[in-house]
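User: hey, got a sec? need AMP-dependent synthetase/ligase domain-containing protein folded
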Amino acid sequence: MSDIKNSQNFYPQGPKYSLSYPNATLQALLERKVSQNPKTKAFSFLGLIVDWLDLDRLSTSFAVSLNELRLKKGDRVLLSMPNSPQFAISFFGILKAGGIPVCMDFLSGAETFEKAIKEVQPYAAILCGDLVEERDLYSAFESAISKLGKASVAHVITTNLFEVLPPIQQALSGSTFKIKSKKRETLGWSKLVFEAPNDEKSVESTVSDIALIQYKSDNKGVILTHKNLISNAMQFSHWFALTQAEVILAAIPFTSTRGLVSTLLSSLVSGAALSVLPLFIADEAVKTIEKDSVSFLPATPRMLDSLASCEEAKKRNLSSLKSCVCITGEIPPAIKASFENMLKNSGGSVKIIECYGLIEACAFTHANSPNAQKTGSIGLPLPDTEVTVLDQDTLRPLEVNKEGILAIKGPQVMAGYFGQQATQPFDNEGRLITTIGVYFDQDGYFYLLGSLEESIVINGKRIWTREIERVLNAHPAVKESSVTISQDKKGEKQLKASVVIKPGEKVSVQDILNYCKTKLAPEKIPKQIDIVRELKL
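Assistant: Yep! Here you go:
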């Protein structure tokens, strides 16, 4: 059995296995930050500097306006927009007004918005009204509302992404990011923030109150409390030793908990400054890293791959970068090596650190140490995170190197799914029982196998797709791969692999198949292998 009691034996120097968490809400931490460092930079956004006092004052004004719109404690407010000052101000403003942010990907489709609106019944919605690369960020929500009826959301508030910038900077940024503003027949965000009545009211909140409902790709709403979010932000910032001296690149969407925790909330608890990008564009990211002296980079494999092949990086000095974290777990070795080589050629010498988590546990549960990494591992459990590997049928704890499902208990674990009280995934001990396949080695390091939905039983043996991807990614000509479950003509389930080849390499499907035969048991060899230009997201 692996839990926090023996995982601590393998902790590297630096991180503690248990932390002390404040009995405070997110808005209380913001107020505390203002009392300590009011004029310290909270974040920069395309040249605009926002300090902690600005963020506190403007979010308070927004809260007053929300209360003037008769928002009550516990009312839900849908929040869906790219990274921006407006998101941060709105997020804290909703909390100060007693509301609950309901975060959704700003690229969500109409059906996703429709389901969420039906389920959480938001009193208000705050969205971006812009067109991004000709895609209307408001249209999916508008379609959902037209189907459900305008009365389904009492107040709709829209902002234009660059309206907080000076006119010249608006034009430049709009051109760079291919974003066009569009006027909507809705309440204007700026008016609610900058023309709010001077009538501040205090709404009492506790650490056990809901601070966020986060929607997943499977349309489940995850309930996260102030305690959940603050704990995970502290676990993350402590593990990676974030301080006020750091500058974090905030390019992962705030509307995802991984983006929110690794950037905005880690900044709140550590004092680090953010350099905020509304969208991830590799050229703009490397320019920003150099200009703002970014030292900490949370990223996805796709982002790191784009940076690795970015021509602009060759012109930039990226020596300020001290840490880079892959927030989705294991990264293909070829992409990791390519990024680290790019960085070395641009003045840096950073190794990518892999970490992992799931929305039901806020964002993060495991991480490798900068000084004690293991290839292919998602690392050790974070402080105060009790992790057990269970037999999927009996739910009995398993020993070292035995494959089972992940069970988690810790301060970051969710309160439950919204509106699904009868189907909460907890056992009698309060552990979150997942469908994620894992195992751990003799040093307490965990390895991801994938979800049960991504596995198949052949000849009585469970085959995990992640294991096969790991083998394919180790091929010297392979950049990355994806293994899925498909059906043959008879309707039988089978393994299908999609493989991306490194630039300049030549390899055939038969070559890949022959390689698999030397590395995998017969039942684990994919029945179909396709060489593709890129993987589907």
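Quick note: The chain has a mean pLDDT of 93. Let me know if you need anything else on AMP-dependent synthetase/ligase domain-containing protein.
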